[in-house]
Amino acid sequence: MERTHKSLSVFDFLDYRDFIRQAWALMQAKSRRYSYRWFSRKAGLGSPSYLKLVMDGDRNLTDDTAGRFAHAFDLDEQESRYFVALVRMNQAGTTEERSKWFEQLSSVPRYRATRKLDRSQYDYFALWYCVPIRELVARGDFQEDPAWIGRQLRPPIPASNAKKALELLFELNLVERTADGRLQQSQPLLTTGPQLRALAARRFHQQMLHRAEEAMDNVPLDEREVGGVAVRLTNPQLQHLKKRLYELRQEVLQLDGTGEGPQAVYHFAFQLFPVTQWPETEGTQA
After folding, report:
1. Which SS3 state, helix, strand or coil, does residue 248 take?
2. Other CB atoms closer than 10 Å to residue 41's CB: what's the count?
3. For a 10 Å CB count at each end of the chain, is N or C smaller?
4. Bridge-partner residues for 160, per DSSP?
5. Which segments in the chain show pLDDT lower than 70?
6. What would the pLDDT profile of 1-46 be if each residue is shown by its tens digit?
């Protein structure tokens, strides 16, 4: 059977609804015989409106219906496996689940062959130690030795993990070798799409929050600062605080590498989140 959307690759998508919308649009542009009723029959669905409900975001897919959609769109075995994992990732309720399904879909051979850079950029943020190692590269006493690098991190990591992180930094052009053979940071543009950036960022912050929890027990008080307050805020006050935190973050970035004397790499984080609901009658307009 001729594939009805052969110019479209499911591996180019990280949102299964986007793929469905574009694949369906191509099919309808090719022939008027492709109707909701036709799709429903081919997919073995009970309702002709099911496809439209999914495209509009009013209905989710189960593992069973995801497989039926893959069949209706003439996806082969690898494409179907990718599509089902994509559905699971998009509909996952937690960062942990989304990360699990991204790692599965990015292991599909044809995805790895065409989108290897996406997985590498995800790993850069999702493996908590990659960002600190890139900062460590700029320190005066840096040694390009995985065992040494692993010992510098808190908590320490195996030399094999440090070696993998260095390879990743080279692959992404986040570090480069100077004329005298030393490593230095470079400033490339990471081009991961917004969905993958958001997933990787959530995973990174999740891991760093865990590191912060460990630091409460493992790092001496004079080397850390952890604090917080509970306050009642209106929405304008909330927006003001978010703006101030952004400005402070930019100020902290300006300090990077500018001081004299010994340096350690620190993770400087802020958390601002609600611990109660907004009043039902006022919402966030208070």
Report:
1. helix
2. 12
3. N
4. none
5. 1-7, 117, 188-194, 281-286
6. 345 555 688 998 989 999 999 999 999 888 888 999 999 999 999 8
Task: Report, at the CATH architecture level, how domain 10-91 is classified.
Answer: Orthogonal Bundle (1.10)
Spatial distance between the Cα atoms of 197 and 203, rounded to a whole number of angstroms: 10
Can you tell me whether residue 214 is helix, strand or coil?
helix
Query: 0.90 exceeded by the pTM?
Result: no
188 by Cβ neighbours in 10 Å (0-12 / 13-18 / 19+) ranks as exposed
Task: Give the N- to C-terminal CA distance of the chain in Å, as an integer.
Answer: 59
Instruction: Determine the distance from the C-alpha atom of residue 142 to the mean position of all C-alpha atoms in its chain, rounded to a whole number.
Output: 29
With a CB cutoff of 8 Å and minimum separation 6, the contacts of 81 are: 105, 108
Q: What is the DSSP letter of 276?
A: S
The Cα 42–Cα 278 span in angstroms is 47
Helix spans in 174-281 (H)? 194-218, 235-255
Longest alpha-carbon distance in the chain: 73
pLDDT of residue 206: 83
Distance separating alpha carbons of residues 152 and 259, to the nearest angstrom: 20
Sequence ranges of the domains in the chain: 10-91, 123-226, 227-254+262-286
Span 108-132, pLDDT tens digits: 888 877 777 677 878 888 889 998 9
Q: What are phi and psi of 84, to 5 degrees?
A: -65, -40
Determine contact, residues 27/208, Cβ cutoff 8 Å. no
The candidate with the shortest Cα–Cα distance to 80, out of 156, 118, 133, 72, is 72
Give the 3-state secondary structure of residue 69.
helix
Measured CA to CA, the distance from residue 2 to residue 249 in angstroms comes to 54
Which CATH architecture is the domain 123-226 placed in? Orthogonal Bundle (1.10)
- Contact assessment for residue 150 and residue 143, using Cβ atoms and an 8 Å cutoff: no
10-91 matches 123-226 in fold: no
